[in-house]
Amino acid sequence: MNTAARSIEATRVNLDMALLRTFVAVVDLGGVARAAQRVGRSQPAVSLQLRRLEEVTGAPLFQKNGRGLALTEGGDVLLAYARRLLELNDETVAAVTTLRLAGSVRLGISQDFADGWLTKILARFARAHPSIVIEVKADRNAVLLDALARQQLDFALTFGDKNARGAIALGRVPMVWIGSSDRSWQGADHIPLVLFEPPCEFRRVAVQTLEAKRLPWRLAFSSPSLSSQWSAVEAGLGVSVRTPIGLRSPLIILGDQDGLPPLSSGSLRLLLHHAEGKQSTAARKLQDILITTIREKLEADIGRA
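User: That's the sequence. What structure does it adopt?
Assistant: Structure tokens below.
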């Protein structure tokens, strides 16, 4: 190697994926303590990793913000690149280590996940495993569970608090009142509701809450399509109960200040059901990724709440 080549090589900085993964965890979870649990290290070790990353990049990444930490301008720039690098790293490792992985996986998801971070996860999985065919069905819980029982799906990701044999609990998600910003329904004799037809846990909780408070209500709009429900709420036809997952702009979360009482049940479990019988290798691989990424996403969102 000539002198010029050695000089160029010496000036190159190689970022450590472990440092980047810790950095992203600290940002997503809002602090060192929870990030330490995520990456399986002690808090001092995590702090040391952050200092090492600052040394490597030559820029401070965090600044004091009251009792917490906030990203500096350099930290904000690094965060965007760190996410991209980690995604590419994980895709690369998955692609190389499972070159012979093939087959098909049929996944059912709640309509809340049809447009958002979960579909991006599935897209990355598909790119890393081009020989695996992924079929996704977005529908209501009852439809998905029926399809699972008929062996028409390998997995079903649903909301629910009822005990389900063999289902894997991924975490809890909050239930909230959702409406439009104009609040055109306020002042009416009855609270107009936009809901699914029964059976629906969100409908049950909404109705149970209003009746317990003796607040009059009426069903203003009902559709099997969540997208249609969001359009109805956005148009001001009424309010709905759902989780913040998949909430689209300009819809907002409502509460006491809007004349709506706290819901009788504050959250629901997110469950991953799988069909009976032996799973294929492709299905097991996707299941592992779903369990890990969804739990991390829910934990990060709760940490920022």
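The chain is about 45% helix and 20% strand.
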